[in-house]
Amino acid sequence: MRKLQSNLTIAGVDPALVNVRLNAVPEPATLALFGAGLVGFAALRRRRKGAQAAA
Fold first, then answer.
1. What is the pLDDT of residue 12?
2. Which residues neighbour 9 within 8 Å (Cβ) at sequence distance 6 or greater?
């Protein structure tokens, strides 16, 4: 009996031959966009809070 081997490759590269380390490094643009979103939410909340007090 022959044993069947599966040759799984991703884009033609054998995963067993690839040794890659991935480190999470936040990009400055991503952090700036996230910060701008937080500032926007804070401004929206402050604006709604002021409108409720005036009503």
1. 63
2. 15
